[in-house]
Design a protein that fits this description.
- It is built from seven helices and two strands.
- The radius of gyration is 21 Å and the shape is flat.
- With 151 residues, it is mostly helical.
- The longest helix has 24 residues.
- Helix 3 packs across helix 6.
- The protein has a two-stranded parallel ribbon.
Length: 151
């Protein structure tokens, strides 16, 4: 990206970033975050999603990627899920242990994301109960954007 910016603008990426950050925003934006009232609900959904990914062929996908010559040390293979499954395929842990590690690391990552997002005082949070209610989320976001009170 730095080379592209320099080629197109003649500026270093540092100078370009400083200049563009100093510009006023082009649009008045509003940001929304969706989450769950209970963190355990989020974690249960993450664990369920990992089980679904495994059932849909995560082990086979990683095996095909490695078989096609993709190095298990490349950046893409360091993503949560891929590195743990690759370790299992190399015999470094059992498939069950790999799956549990994917679940644990995915929950930790979600926690870090929530921590990072909570630092933003302008973020409008919409919290779901046990199941997503997108009709309610749309209604709340519309009320927020129109300046009306939130239910």
């Amino acid at each position: 990206r730095a080379m592209e910016v320099y080629t197109l603008t003649g500026e270093t990426i540092t100078a370009h970033d400083a200049r563009t950050k100093a510009l006023p925003p082009r649009y008045a934006s509003r940001r929304f975050a969706l989450t769950w009232n209970e963190r355990e609900t989020l974690y249960a959904r993450i664990r369920q999603r990992v089980d679904e990914m495994v059932a849909a062929g995560l082990f086979e996908e990683v095996e095909r990627l490695l078989g096609a010559g993709l190095s298990d040390s490349c950046t893409a293979m360091q993503a949560i899920g891929y590195k743990e499954i690759a370790a299992s395929l190399r015999g470094e842990c059992s498939p069950e242990d790999a799956i549990e590690t994917v679940k644990r690391e995915s929950c930790r990552y979600a926690k870090r994301q929530l921590t990072w997002l909570r630092r933003d005082p302008d973020l409008f949070w919409i919290r779901h109960e046990k199941t997503p209610d997108m009709d309610r989320a749309c209604r709340l976001s519309t009320q927020f954007l129109s300046g009306r009170g939130i239910e």
